[in-house]
Each structure stands twice: as C-alpha cells, then as structure tokens.
C-alpha cells in the first residue's frame, strides 16, 4: 500500500496487477512479484515466516533441512504461539502448529539464504523436540521404544543425532510439554 499511496483506489490497482500477472497473491495483503518482474523467488521458508507469525520453521521441514530425516517435505511446517493453522497458496502449502511460551522461543536460529533473505528456523535439537511434542500419541516410556520410534517412524540419522547439544536440550525440558517423553528421548540419545 505504501508503494501505491498516490492512487485513489489502491486495491483496484492491486487487483489489476494480479490480473496482469505482475503480482502473485499469497494471502490477503501479501504478494510476490509475478513472473514478468520477478528477479529472485523468495525462499519458501522466508515466505512461511511472513504468512503467519510469530512463527519459525520446524518439525519435518527443519528435520529435512538439516538432513536428519531422508524424506523430502512438500508442505512447509512451522510452529507458532497462535492457534494452529493451514494455508494453501499458489506458492505452496504451509502448516503452523501451536506451541506454548516460553518453550516456543527456545532454539530458534536465523539463517541467511542470500544477503537480502533471512528466515527463522528451529535448531536440529528443537526441531526433534517439537516433532515429538506435536505428534499425537507419541509417549516414549523406554529406551527400546524410543530407539524404535527414531529409527522406524522418523527414520532419523542416528549418527547426526549423536552430535546434538544434550545440555541445551535438558534445559528446555522444564518448560516443555511431554516432559517425561522428552527425558526418555534424551536418556536414549545419550546412550547411542
């Protein structure tokens, strides 16, 4: 709107720009340059941050980004302090899962894609915790079931998990949901 302040009806101008393909609507009030004028497509992780906030990329998207899981993730998964939401847009699908404060704010990293693009993402440790916390029915009660969950369900790279910061993870548990499950996870990871 700031760029269209000289127009008497800026919303009509936006509609015309969308119709002409010069703007691509993502959601109300958020547009990307269309193919005609696009120099560089914003990274989907950056777009996710702007669609709904506060939020940061986590869960399957972050686990895949760090190569902890072998699967390619097509929907961008993020966590938020607001109610869980899903958005299907012309640039992709975006899901947001609610996590409580202060736990939500732990383990967030700012990553640079290009000199002009940065996005927020959970650290590998936080992404793993978030995945376990937000997956319904996951209650880890023994090292055997925890290892089976990591290997069979998540198909996680156990060699990479060994390099995680266990001290930091331990500090987060006091403010996290599913405390006993996370303690069992941490105990199992330390034994790998």
Description:
By secondary structure, this protein is α+β, with helices and mostly antiparallel strands. It has 2 domains: 32 residues, no CATH class; 148 residues, no CATH class. 38% of the residues lie in helices and 22% in strands. The chain is built from 8 helices and 8 strands, in the order αββαβαβββββααααα. It has a 4-stranded mixed beta sheet. It has a two-stranded antiparallel sheet with strand order 1-2.
- Averaged pLDDT: 90
* Helix content class: 25-40%
Total DSSP E strands:
8
Strand content: 15-25%
Main sheet: which strands, in order across?
3-4-6-5
Low-confidence stretches: none
The assigned structural class equals: alpha+beta
Q: Indicate how many domains the architecture comprises.
A: 2
Which secondary structure elements does this structure contain, and how are they paired or packed?
Blueprint: H1 10-19, E1 23-27, E2 30-33, H2 44-51, E3 55-57, H3 59-65, E4 76-80, E5 85-89, E6 92-98, E7 108-114, E8 117-122, H4 124-134, H5 143-153, H6 158-161, H7 166-173, H8 179-191
Parallel strand pairs: 4-6
Antiparallel strand pairs: 1-2, 3-4, 5-6, 7-8
Helix pairs in contact: 3-4, 5-8, 7-8
In short:
By secondary structure, the protein is of the alpha+beta class. It has 8 helices and 8 strands. The protein folds into 2 domains: 2-33, no CATH class; 44-191, no CATH class.
Give the key terms.
single chain; 192 residues; alpha+beta; 2 domains; four-stranded mixed beta sheet; two-stranded antiparallel sheet; 8 strands
């Amino acid at each position: 709107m700031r760029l269209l302040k000289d127009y008497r009806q800026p919303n009509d101008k936006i509609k015309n720009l969308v119709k002409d393909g010069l703007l691509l609507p993502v959601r109300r009030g958020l547009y990307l340059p269309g193919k005609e004028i696009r120099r560089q497509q914003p990274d989907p992780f950056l777009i996710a941050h702007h669609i709904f906030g506060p939020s940061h990329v986590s869960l399957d998207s972050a686990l895949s980004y760090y190569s902890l899981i072998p699967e390619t993730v097509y929907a961008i998964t993020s966590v938020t302090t607001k109610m869980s939401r899903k958005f299907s847009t012309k640039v992709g699908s975006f899901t947001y899962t609610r996590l409580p404060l202060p736990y939500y704010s732990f383990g967030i990293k700012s990553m640079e894609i290009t000199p002009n693009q940065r996005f927020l993402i959970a650290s590998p440790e936080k992404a793993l915790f978030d995945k376990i916390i937000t997956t319904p029915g996951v209650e880890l009660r023994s090292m055997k079931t925890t290892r089976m969950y990591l290997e069979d369900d998540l198909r996680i790279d156990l060699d990479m998990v060994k390099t995680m910061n266990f001290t930091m993870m331990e500090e987060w548990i006091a403010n996290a949901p599913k405390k006993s499950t996370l303690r069992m996870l941490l105990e199992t990871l330390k034994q790998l």
